[in-house]
Amino acid sequence: MGFDPHIFWEQLLNPQYLWGALLSIGVAAVALVIATVLGFFLALGRTSANRWGSAAAGAYIWFFRAIPALLVLLIMWNALPQLIPMFKGDWYSPFIAASVGLGLVEAAFMAEIIRASLSSVDDGQGLAGRALGMTPGSVMRKVILPQAIRTALPPTGNEFIGLVKYSSLASVISLQELLTTAQVGVNVTFRYAEYYAVAIIYYLVIVTIITLIQGRIEKKFAWTSRAGRKLLRTTATETQVIAVRKARGEREEVNA
């Protein structure tokens, strides 16, 4: 029994595969949003001077980095409704369970990415912003985050691609995503090569599109020229000098 091109093309144009691909992307996108928001606060906790906050964030990261994503999905779908009756309702779908479960796991990894990105921004940038009268929230939003985002974009894009592939684990909780769609066809026809080849094509297309979008976003945040980078360094240096002079002036007034 050889490879049948007719079956391959027929399944390649099957709307069920498109729906399965959209489900995979949807789970990955929702999980990444959850992971990014939660990971941001975990990163702040890790870098906090508060000992308890840092310990709690570190414990979360340690716990979810150690547990397999498949086990988390099984707990979210099978164990959680037993422990909390509200999750037995019809509203709690495999899509929600998979998105939240993968988001909780991914948050541990995003926390480290965000922490490293925030740490890559020179401390003088924040001090200069504070010296100019900016609030801590404004310094984070207008000074630190724009620079940290540029550093975090490449690994975040890689994590999103990984989540698209990890969404196939949700087949164990009855989510009919892309790989499950192919597996259902295989179980009926026993045509492994054709159905799995279609799944490969869809995954390649998805990853290619994500990579292209990621590249465009990275270019948007990249410095356009050496002159622009030199101007940024000069401006940052001048701002830090102003901050130092202002601080010295305040100390002199106090001493006087």
TrEMBL record:
Name the keywords, alphabetized.
Amino-acid transport, Cell membrane, Membrane, Transmembrane, Transmembrane helix, Transport
Q: Name one GO biological process term.
A: amino acid transport
Q: What membrane topology is annotated for this entry? A: Multi-pass membrane protein
Q: Does the keyword Cell membrane apply?
A: yes
Write out the annotated subcellular location: Cell membrane
Q: What is this protein called?
A: Amino acid ABC transporter permease
GO MF terms held by the record: transmembrane transporter activity
Q: What is its main location?
A: membrane
Pfam families tied to this protein: BPD_transp_1
